[in-house]
Amino acid sequence: MKLAVLTTVAVSAAAANAQSSGAAASSPAVSGSAAVSGSAVASGASSAAPASVSLPSVSFSLASVNPTAVALTDLVPGTLTTQATLLPTATFAGGTVPTFLSNAPPLPDISTLSPANYPPLDKPPPTDSPEVQQWIKEVQSSGITIPNLAPTQPGGCGANPTFATDQSRCWWTCGGCTRDGDITACPDKLTWGLTYDDGPAPYTPNLLQYLDQANLKTTFFAVGSRCISYPAILREEYMAQHQIAVHTWSHPAMTTVSTEGIIAELGWSKKIIKDILGVTPIYWRPPYGDIDDRVRAIAKAMGLEAVMWTRISPTATFDTNDYNIAGGTVSVSQVLQNWEHIVGNASQMDTGFIVLEHDLFAQTVDLATGYILPAGLANDPKLNIKPVISCLNKPLSDAYLETNDNATNPLPTASNISPTLSSGSPGAAQATGNTSGGSSQNSAMGVRFDASGAVVMFGTAVLAFFASMF
Ligand SMILES: [Zn+2]
């Protein structure tokens, strides 16, 4: 399969739409509708939403489009199969020792992996199991103090007006507060920390194939319940030298969960990944970015470092919003405009950046492989695309407990956690309000979902998707 990463031809998005929605659908070559220009940048507008859905049609421009991309007009709400779903390309037997990590344990035998030995999928794990009780004891003996903060009510900032404005809670969802230790950007300018959340999923191998052919590595924030369903895909990700990180068991908004419940979510996620890969991640991402000081402390007590996505102002977060396509609340053109703004903002920053994307849905994978990644690879100025661990200038071995070099990458302990507010390093979110951060590109980002809306819509979409799978 020829990929756009091999070509410098630029194509207008409008042309790409027209092309594949019409007779050319079976002939995805860009000739005839490609706009070759000196700058290799073309502009277009698309309206991917069906007429029955009222979504704005917005303009965007992309530096390049994959000639084999699924047409934007085909990336519509619902559960899609727009391309053949690839199977895992290789089977890695138990006992295989990864050679790309020093001191990596052999792969476990997953032939006997049984869902019966784990909590029910996509539900908050019980907290009275022996495993969770043991993890609770470990947190209690970690030396890390868990702040006595009440869980938030479901519904985000609007449902929690007091908590939302409580600076001492440092609730990222409401104002973007961060602490030292939160990873919110890559340090080096024009370095893109590539991340995909919520898999592994049926379409993930399609993304893996593209990444392999483009010689790219990423960070996958894996949901524990999905790992049970697709262990072979998780193993493919790991053995292809992508970074695997934790994204909870059932994908709740973590500030709403009890302390014991948070321990259960993180503990089971760490365990299933270790049971499949032999290694335990030491990085995690809170679903919806929903983190406050209580959640931070629990995660650190469990040896997990939080990776967010870059946020330079309330209206300029580096979230493509791709996950809302399947639920019908965002059009593909809006996502691609978000991407254009992200790249525009990134070029103005002194640091690199981390972008939120997803591999759960066909729509999000097709957008990544057909549009966002080809455009990113063709971007001028050049972007250095890396997994988060690499963008932090650390070896991949530092991503896992069993292979981490504690001498150079000390894990969180009670003595090295700073309780102070982040000083607001470049690219990091600010504790309050409108950092003017303030270019016109930021304001052009437009209105974003508030946290509660995003939570509700995403939850609905995910549940609908899961319901279709089981
Ligand atoms: Zn997620």
Automatic annotation (TrEMBL):
> Cellular location of this protein?
Cell membrane; Secreted, Cell wall
Cofactor names from the entry are: Co(2+)
Gene3D superfamilies cross-referenced by the UniProt entry: Glycoside hydrolase/deacetylase
Question: EC annotation?
Answer: 3.5.1.41
Q: Where in this chain does the record put each NodB homology domain?
A: 190-386
According to its record, what are the GO cellular component terms? plasma membrane; side of membrane
| Leader sequence residues | 1-18
Q: What is the membrane topology noted in the UniProt record heading this document?
A: Lipid-anchor; GPI-anchor
Q: Could you tell me what reaction this enzyme catalyses? A: [(1->4)-N-acetyl-beta-D-glucosaminyl](n) + n H2O = chitosan + n acetate
Give a Pfam family name: Polysacc_deac_1
Regions of biased composition (Low complexity) lie at: 427-442
Q: Where is it chiefly localized?
A: membrane
Q: Does the keyword Transmembrane apply?
A: no
- The UniProt record lists the keyword Disulfide bond: no
Any Gene Ontology biological process: cell wall organization
**What domain of life does the native source organism fall in?**
Eukaryota
Q: Where are the stretches annotated Disordered?
A: 411-442
Ordered alphabetically, the record's keywords are: Carbohydrate metabolism, Cell membrane, Cell wall, Cell wall biogenesis/degradation, Chitin degradation, Cobalt, Glycoprotein, GPI-anchor, Hydrolase, Lipoprotein, Membrane, Metal-binding, Polysaccharide degradation, Secreted, Signal
Please state what class of enzyme this protein is.
hydrolase
Annotated Polar residues bias: 411-425
**Under the GO molecular function aspect, what terms does this record hold?**
chitin deacetylase activity; metal ion binding
Q: Which family does it belong to?
A: Belongs to the polysaccharide deacetylase family.
Q: Which PANTHER family match?
A: CHITIN DEACETYLASE 1-RELATED (PTHR10587:SF133), GLYCOSYL TRANSFERASE-RELATED (PTHR10587)
Q: Indicate what this protein is called per its UniProt record.
A: chitin deacetylase
Q: Which organism is it from?
A: Bjerkandera adusta
